[in-house]
Amino acid sequence: MTQPAMRQRRDGLRQRPIYLDYQATTPTDPRVVAAMLPYFTDMFGNPHSKSHPFGEEAARAVEAARRQVADLIGAEAREIVFTSGATEANNLAIKGAARFLRGRGRDHVVTCTTEHKCVLESARRLEIEGFRVTRIGVGPDGLIDLDALAAAVDERTALVSVMAVNNETGVIQPIAEIGRLCRSRGALFHADAAQAAGKIAIDVAGMDIDLMSLSAHKMYGPKGIGALYVRRRPRARLAAEMDGGGQERGLRSGTLPAPLCVGFGAAAAIAADEMATESARMLELRRRLLERIEADVPDVRLNGHRERRVAGNLNLAFPGIEAEMLLTRLPGLAVSTGSACTSAAVEPSYVLRAMGLDAELAGCSIRIGLGRFTTDDEVETAASAIVAAVQACRAERPPALQDAGAM
């Protein structure tokens, strides 16, 4: 991005709290917006109406975007099925694969206790339909128990679904190892990569991934568009979830939103070009932020593996301080207590509970997400604000509780 464009974007955000919730969503990159705009007005054709130039140019743009998304993950363009987002892609992958393979004697699904809600609820729906579902736990570092996974996958397992990067803790799961295990057992492997694509290198062939869900708005693209990678060789077969005109290889009917597809493609291309330098910059910002907080709040706890996490994520627990109370003292920062999809829930994060945190400590945790537009000054400001807020919260507590929180 050009320096003037970057400054313009930052100036616009400065009038509001410092945005540090990049796991929830990302601002659409101005370069992505510029790529999309013509397809709302001048090139507005239906990409499925190929009998005239309007439809043809929209169709060409959609196919170019499909190639850009495929290139990001090492896939073929025809293996990309556009969806409304990662939630739809997850539903299509899990339910579609399980229902198709049930007729071939495979009626077992394996997933992980820390998956996104839409994966867990999809598995629950299959369970209601009579499928056997196994949920594998994780260790205190958030990593899946590979031995338990290996023991669970049997000759009747249709699908294993494990997310590449956790949306709350940023922990990176051993996807390649899981892929090899599934391939050796004849089970399909699905990875929810909404939080991974564009942040870490992904090679669907080298990692033995059969199905993978993607989301544009997690990588500086528009909301309302995602994709499901569906392997062709060896072929991953799915039962369609939606009836209609048979678009997207008959797997996902409905008119494709050409502007959103174009935006997704542009976001994927930018991510592919800038991922390495962007990750290195964010890793340094994260290091500085964590070191500053740990220096002034010695009992702060980092939730999840310290190294095996995406560069922009910190999930921190401040013992003795309720996360909601802490957030009220951080009006200048946009951070969260966990997943945006469960932020209305009163109970502590089920992800952190699955990692072994008790309800009290899980309720003391906040998620900080750094991203493309985060600046050095913003990190310094955020560190000072968080330290000050923690100290203020503790100063207000009775002495006995202050001592308990510092333990």
Written account of the structure:
It is a single chain. This protein is α/β, with parallel strands linked by helices. It has helices spanning 3-14, 30-36, 53-73, 86-102, 117-128, 146-152, 175-185, 258-296, 323-328, 350-354, 359-362, 376-395, 399-405; strands spanning 18-19, 80-83, 108-112, 132-136, 157-161, 188-192, 211-215, 226-230, 301-302, 313-317, 333-334, 365-369. It is globular.
CATH fold field value of the largest domain:
Aspartate Aminotransferase, domain 2
N/C terminus separation: 46 Å
> Looking across the biggest beta sheet, what order are the strands in?
2-8-7-6-5-3-4
Q: Report the uncertain regions.
A: none
CATH architecture of the largest domain: 3-Layer(aba) Sandwich
Number of separate helices = 13
Task: Look at the structure and name the CATH superfamily of the largest domain.
Answer: Type I PLP-dependent aspartate aminotransferase-like (Major domain)
Structural class estimated from helices and strands: alpha/beta
For the sheet with most strands, the description reads: 7 strands, mixed
Radius of gyration: 22 Å
Oligomer: single chain
Level-1 CATH class name of the largest domain: Alpha Beta
SSE pattern, N- to C-terminal? HEHHEHEHEHEHEEEHEEHEHHEHH
The total tally of domains equals 2
State the helical fraction.
40-55%
Strand content: 5-15%
Give the integer mean of the pLDDT values: 93
The 3D shape can be described as globular
**Number of strand elements:** 12
